[in-house]
Request: fold
Amino acid sequence: MGDTGEDSRERIMDATYRALIETGYADLTMNDIAGQSETSTSLLHYHFDTKEDLLVAFLDDLIERIERDLADLADADPVTRLYDVIEWYVLGAGETEREALHTAILELRGQAPYNDRYRERMRQADRLIRNALADIIRDGHESGDFTNGDPETMATLLLATMDGARGRQLAGGKPGYAKAVRAALYEHVLADLFSEEAAEIWSALTGEAEDR
Amino acid sequence: MGDTGEDSRERIMDATYRALIETGYADLTMNDIAGQSETSTSLLHYHFDTKEDLLVAFLDDLIERIERDLADLADADPVTRLYDVIEWYVLGAGETEREALHTAILELRGQAPYNDRYRERMRQADRLIRNALADIIRDGHESGDFTNGDPETMATLLLATMDGARGRQLAGGKPGYAKAVRAALYEHVLADLFSEEAAEIWSALTGEAEDR
Reply:
């Protein structure tokens, strides 16, 4: 099979990912991206006029991936699903690739107030994750895992908290910050929300059970 | 009195503030800053070699201002002090100048992972505000306004939450997001922490009392 448009697009997205991880956003050039793929700069420009067009497509792909990941979670119990979504925001030691990607996204986020197209993607991702969190809380009320907490309010609170924690961890270069915030979130917010059984599942997931 | 070094520095910092608000960080040039002051570009370069040097000085000034603002708060009761610190993160309608400043700082924050000097300032500001929050919680325990909550844990949680809320508000262009998060924070975290009297002070401060 020859190189279809779909193939090239995928290769370019993959190259963008690698270039973002290596270079970050501000200093990224179309040449860097071409250098990461077997694609020539001219083929790159055939698909995408500007770096902005390319990054908008990259963000669209990222949003699709988040959607797929959230759909994959749907079969688990509400506590595990909640844990998994929150876990996205925790960057552990040695996760250098994920850290580099989120560092580049933090940069893009910083440009979003000045760029309608980036901003629209940030808003879409926000809505997606917030709705998923609210669904999880709602399902948890039905299953009896969660005993209180308005789904929309909780979703907004959880997302702001974990996102803020990761942002501060990256900008301040403080490993473990997001993990500390997750523990505080459990102690001050989630523990009040959880049934006894839910609390046990959570403790097992965070490994806190073993530490006590 | 002639133009002393201190005068020029102050004028340059003031011009940097206005230029950041107008242009943001990424597109900011030394010329923009000179254009905002009565300072020539050459005098600007006499004081600061690079845009980075200038912005590091600007961040240092900002940190000093935060320090002064926090010191000014020290006489108020713990609930009012807590409210005032959290209020910094709430950007209301019509606060366009503050919003523009924090938008520029969000951009700078996005560069911090790649820049040691910015990162060090982000970390300093983080430490300053976190310590202030922990002191407030500690004083609140002594005064009986707060009935539980480990000061360090609460400070980390509150800061991550409000910072995340403001960041999402700015990046997603969603007015009222930080305010909604503050309300959720009250409902799920602070209400459990506050004495009855403290809850009343808080409600009066947020104007929630009138809305009920």
Q: What stands out?
A: Chain A touches chain B through 46 residues (CB under 8 Å). The mean pLDDT of chain A is 91. The longest helix of chain A spans residues 116-143.
